[in-house]
């Protein structure tokens, strides 16, 4: 891997950039295709490190409980490097309502510049994509062990046009 490639993988995508298109399976092996929302609806992607970890478990439970606050503005999906099978078991155990996308090859995580190379996982980050397919907002949590600010995300989503 070249230094330039490593920098791209770990440098968050810029606001205003075209959101890299992708297709990932969810916990039920149903494909989530970003392109299907272009021109129709914004998308918010919640990247998180790992299923079953303490902060991610608490965060996804809170997020799922407040899903309507986000889904009224945008299509919502959470992305991690875990497998479809881990996602399915975790979603069932936790009673989660949102889709969990499996990025096992880390391609989407790297394309969005959210790869945590030291741990081989994604950063805890939020990416808002407008209905035209442009990155509208990105926030990477400085401390990967801390939950994101949901009120801040809701505020950003409420201002989308």
Short description:
The chain is an alpha/beta fold. It has helices at residues 3-10, 54-65, 67-71, 84-94, 107-111, 150-158, and strands spanning 23-25, 31-33, 43-47, 75-80, 99-102, 115-116, 121-122, 125-129, 135-140. The chain has one domain (3-17, 38-158): Glutaredoxin (3-Layer(aba) Sandwich), CATH 3.40.30.
Descriptive keywords:
globular; two-stranded antiparallel ribbon; alpha/beta; 161 residues; single chain
Number of strands: 9
Q: Biggest sheet, open or closed, and with what strands and sense?
A: 5 strands, mixed
Tell me which CATH architecture applies here: 3-Layer(aba) Sandwich
Q: Helicity level, as a percent range?
A: 25-40%
Strand content: 15-25%
The shape, in one word, is: globular
Structural class: alpha/beta
SSE string: HEEEHHEHEHEEEEH
Report the mean per-residue pLDDT as an integer: 91
Strand order of the largest sheet: 5-4-3-8-9
Distance from N terminus to C terminus (CA atoms, Å) equals 39 Å
* Number of separate structural domains: 1
